[in-house]
Specification:
278 residues, alpha/beta, TIM Barrel, 2 domains, eight-stranded parallel barrel, 12 helices, 8 strands, 13% strand, elongated, binds 3-methyl-2-oxobutanoic acid
């Protein structure tokens, strides 16, 4: 097994090799993702949508995030595990932000946290980093602000909005973020940020120039089809496989094919005789 990755390893990868990040929310998925050599595993607040069935990410709580982070860190041996700070766990005060970030490391076993936002969350980022907790930033389409953004829309399309994104990326790196997720922004803007920003950029719907790429696991394997953004590439259609397995099970139980002797236990013949003879 490769030795466990560290935050300095992730930072040192900039300009050297492309980084990979995937979400995971449970033990078996995290085992698979880690086994495949993915660099970072994000216990994303997308948990709310792809696992818990909410319409957006807002409803997920700190306790739910910690619960799933524990399951993921139980499985992971190599990747850096990042806990995603849920809505209202860091916005209200710097003190709450530090305490909640600490829970991801202390209770969840994660190595780092991620939070959304630009200039408005710099005080929180500085305080969390000062507490010794690595922070990943998140700019562009920040799903926790979906109401303010008016939906899940591409960000940074005007020169003014793009300039704000570039300034925010600088500010996040300066505040101590070890990397920055860029979500749903034009590829040209992601390229400018990636060139100018000293820390790795991890893109999702931000084009090929980012230092790394992230996808939601359920999107990648085709396990969530309620909403499929343009930037998602499906590498499998696992829902179909699962449906076919379930249908086969149902049919085989109904027609008596399952369980066969192969899947059953037997008692020694003489014991059975004794039983039958009273
Ligand atoms: O919660 C999540 O899955 C995320 C990724 C889309 C980056 O924030």
């Amino acid at each position: 097994m490769d030795k466990p990755l560290t935050i300095p390893d992730i930072m040192a990868a900039k300009g050297q090799r492309k980084l990979t990040m995937l979400t995971a929310y449970d033990y078996p998925t995290a085992l698979l993702v880690d086994r495949c050599g993915i660099d970072m595993i994000l216990v994303g607040d997308s948990l709310a949508m792809v696992v818990l069935g909410h319409k957006d990410t807002l409803a997920v709580t700190m306790d739910q995030m910690i619960h799933h982070t524990k399951a993921v860190t139980s499985a992971v041996k190599r990747a850096v595990v990042i806990g995603d700070m849920p809505f209202m766990s860091y916005q209200a005060s710097v003190e709450q932000a530090v305490l909640n970030a600490g829970r991801f490391l202390k209770e969840g076993g994660a190595q780092a946290i991620k939070l959304e936002g630009g200039a408005q969350v710099i005080p929180q980022i500085k305080a969390i980093v000062n507490a010794g907790i690595p922070v990943q930033g998140h700019l562009g389409l920040t799903p926790q602000s979906v109401a303010q953004l008016g939906g899940f829309k591409v960000q940074g399309k005007s020169a003014e909005a793009a300039k704000r994104l570039v300034d925010d990326a600088y500010a996040l790196a300066e505040a101590g973020c070890f990397s920055i997720v860029l979500e749903a922004i034009p590829m040209e803007i992601a390229e400018i940020i990636t060139e100018k920003c000293p820390v790795p950029t991890i893109g999702i719907g931000a084009g090929k120039h980012c230092d790394g790429q992230v996808l939601v696991f359920h999107d990648l394997v085709g396990l969530f089809d309620k909403f499929v953004p343009k930037f998602v590439k499906r590498y499998a259609n696992i829902s179909k496989e699962i449906e076919s397995a379930i249908k086969n099970f149902k049919q085989e139980v109904e027609n008596g094919e399952f369980p066969s002797e192969k899947h059953s236990f037997t008692i020694p013949k003489q014991e059975l005789e004794k039983l039958k003879n009273g």
